[in-house]
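Let us work through a complete example step by step.
Step 1: write down the sequence.
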Amino acid sequence: MLYVVATPIGNLDDITVRALKTLENADLIAAEDTRHTLGLLEHFGIKKPLLSYFEHNKLSRGPELLEKLEAGTDIALVSDAGMPGICDPGWELIRDCIDRGIEVTVVPGASACVTALVLSGLPTDGFVFEGFIGTDNKQRSAFFERLMRETRTTVCYEAPHRMLKTLAELNERFTAAGIPGRRIAVCRELTKAHEEVSRGTAGELLSKFESAGPRGEFVLCIEGSLLPETSHARTLAAEAGNEAEMRDYYNALISGGSLPKEAMKALASRYGISRNEAYRIVKLSEEL
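Step 2: predict the structure and record it as tokens.
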């Protein structure tokens, strides 16, 4: 059987009794980083053979683990912190086990995503988890586009060296869309001695971290957008001939320093109209 075992995200006291028993009884432990997991096992006096299983060896190590599981070996799968399968290749091993009829069970425990969400103070009745925002420009752009339309709280991970860039882009996009007050909670070092939650707007948090410097492991929780909920009303306003308000909004963005392309995108988002319709209104504004 494959046991998917959650481990602490910082504070070692957060490990569950069931997790300890599972690790003690497993024949083998598959770990994201064997050195990191060895420290955890030594802390609790557990001695078990370890095999690494991570992104860069999954193609070779995955079949090896599957072969052992099919032979009757009980394997505990762990990541460096939290629940295996979240932002690591554990989900692929789980999928392959299911496809081969190998029994899988989860030993639940700490999760940085859920911990940050609850601690953020933002709505929890619906949320979306985006994982790491990443470094690829296309992926980042797609993430921010989704974020502008997302009505649920968005939870994502970010590396400390990219925090300022991310906060700056959030501030730029929210300001251009006329929603600079959209709330964000930045959680760092969760469950550790220096746990900290910073709450505010993108602009406020950018100023804070520019002076303090981002350090540690970060989880961002971002308030859902209210724009899609008002889009129908905005569209009705447009149909009623309320385009003068739209032109004023566009011109105000331009006067405030926004580029025409950004201002047009913000216009379309704010009033729930298509890009083509926004373009028509902008061109009309230029002709008047």
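Step 3: interpret the result. The two ends are 72 Å apart (CA to CA).
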